[in-house]
Amino acid sequence: MIVYLVLGLIQGVTEFLPVSSSGHLVLAERLFGLSSPGLICEACLHLGTLAAVLVVFRADLAELVRALTPRGNVDRRKEIGFLVVGTVPIVLVGLLLRGAADAWFHSLWVIGIGWLATAAMLVAADRRACRTGSAAPSAAGSLGIGIAQSVALVPGVSRSGFSIGAGILVGLRPERAARFSFLLSIPAVAGAAGLTLWDGLREPAARNADTLGILLGAVVAFLVGLVALRALLKVVVRGRLWPFAAYCAALAATALVLAALS
Fold this sequence. Notes:
Number of domains: 1
Number of helices: 11
Number of strands: 0
Radius of gyration: 18 Å
Strand content: under 5%
């Protein structure tokens, strides 16, 4: 049970803070001997943090649903279109690299470089962040944010860090970049978790899965994710991303040193 508790804590904290949850899980396996949680547990942990996004942005999601009605808000309908545009890259890249990406999780070199890339993106966004940016992206900006999100298939690259950073770089206010980033993450995370869960359920080991432990991990990921997401949104409003960049740079150095010594 302790292992699932720790995995839930790691997932809940690092899924939303721009520091890469996948990189942390791999590094924890190497440093502390935590075993891989398995596909079913991995999927449920992501579904736990996805539930946190749905709770925090429930009002925004309700507005988007109302926009689909005849009397819906035109601006919200446009935003739905921009979210669809932003989702296209992650779908295409995910399908093309689904098999190859699995091998990257075994390379500390890849993870270290991913963290360096995240640090660079956060530094760039921190310098660019301003309160006078726009409230909504253009179609081209949405595509750019979607492409940035798809880069997060590389372990060590933070999905939230890259997509929020890209949103700021295309001219969005920091808080709007974060909002668009997390709304954009919903179909991506739901799709990826669904495919992972399907693969896990088809494995012979699925019969021996620790259902109670997996449920504990998912609940912990949800509760901790709620706190982490709300904390991040408060930090992003101020446009202060450099502390996360410094943290990612330190993790990158750790991963690269371990890779060189192994």
